[in-house]
Amino acid sequence: MPNEKRHTVEYLLTAMLAIFILYCMVYISNTIDMPEYKRCLKEQGMAENEIDIINIYNITMKRAENEEKIAFTKSTLKYVGYGLVIDVVLFAMLNVELSKKYAQERMYGDAEWGKVKQFKRISGKKKKFYFTDHSPWKYLLHIKVYLCSFKKVWKEMKNGK
């Protein structure tokens, strides 16, 4: 398998998510600048610069149902900045995750792409069997848990609970 790193779909989905995050932050900034939100804060005895997530969510959902438009308000730039910070963290996480090299079920971080010459010498007789890969104790534990729970449910059904 050639050493091709094509992660176009991952980057495309992440870019779409980043745009959605920015859109949500602008929409939330519009909600925070609404008089209705400020009135809710005063009713709860909170300062105007404090944030109440529940009220923000409720008012934003009402705005979304009424299909209100987005406007540029005084806190829009601040919330777009928050959104950009979230987007930078998102892209950094994606770059770290996509730069890792994986070897299935054994290790990660130092795996390399194999060459044809390396795979020619591998045969079924040389393959190592790891007992921990398919432990019979795992299946016995599952059976025991299933039987214990079945007995408990059966007793409850018999007693009419």
Automatic annotation (TrEMBL):
Transmembrane segments: 12-29, 79-98
Keyword entries, A-Z: Membrane, Transmembrane, Transmembrane helix
Designated name of the protein: Uncharacterized protein
Organism per entry: Roseburia intestinalis
